[in-house]
Amino acid sequence: MGTTQPQVYLVIPAFNEGKIIANVIEEIQKHGFSNIIVVDDGSKDDTYEKAKSIRGITALRHKLNRGYGATVKTGVEAAKIMDADVVVTFDGDGQHDPMDISELISPIVNSDYDVVLGTRLLDTAGMPFYKIIANQIGNFFTWLLFGIWVTDSQSGFRAFSRKAIEKIKTKSERYEYSSEVIREVKLHKLRYKEVPIKVRYTEYSMGKAYKQGFLNGLKTLYKMVWNLIS
User: Fold this and answer.
1) Measuring CA to CA, which residue among 38, 68, 33 is closest to residue 54?
2) Hey, where are the domains in the chain?
3) For residues 158 and 190, is the Cβ–Cβ distance under 8 A?
């Protein structure tokens, strides 16, 4: 990637995270990352206002709730405009540990990988059993539909090179976006690597009503198939 310091941008999709978004941002900043783009996906609380009030943060907002995939894509497009060399997607609910950011970007900066996937399933300590099962099912259908096996196809903690964000094109606007990115990795022969990440399951994050459940999982699978054949 050259001798100059790469520009690393964090993209944080957020929906009704007003209680915690400031803490998430400040924790990332404490670990030395200042290029942060928060995209509020039509929240009904003060997520956008909280993010916007923090100095140096780029805060964007969807007027209507469009979905996880659409929110990430808005942030990635903004990072492109800002000449990002590396983009890291990072959930806004406090589950991810900013200490892992350096581990995710290192293979891109130092080893010419295009995509690094943070995976919760290489070390499942503390992960609820039903989430392990749900993720394994997601992994299976991602492999079945797209022909590529990864250990955590639904992870929101990922890093992308400039080449990757230019190549990856997706139709999806909701949770099926995560699996569709895996398809794009294979389609464009992008070099990828999986890196174990820590996940902090809290009462707050586990109580989020919009998180993937069984019915949402079925909807996601249906949309994955539909996007594949349409």
Assistant:
1) 38
2) 8-229
3) no
Sign of the C-alpha dihedral computed for residues 128, 133, 134 and 140 taken in this order: positive
Containing H/E element for 156?
A: none
β 8-14/192-196 pair status: unpaired
Query: How confident is the model over 111-150, as pLDDT tens digits?
Result: 999 999 999 866 656 666 666 677 777 778 777 877 888 8
CA 117 – CA 63 distance, rounded (Å): 30
How many angstroms from the chain centroid is the CA of residue 67? 13
Topology classification of domain 8-229: Spore Coat Polysaccharide Biosynthesis Protein SpsA; Chain A (3.90.550)
Identify the bridge partners of residue 158 per DSSP, sorted by sequence position.
89, 117
Q: What CA–CA distance (Å, rounded) separates 105 from 113?
A: 9
Token output for 170: 């997706």
Whether pLDDT at 228 is above 70? no
Distance, CA of 78 to CA of 67 (rounded, Å): 17
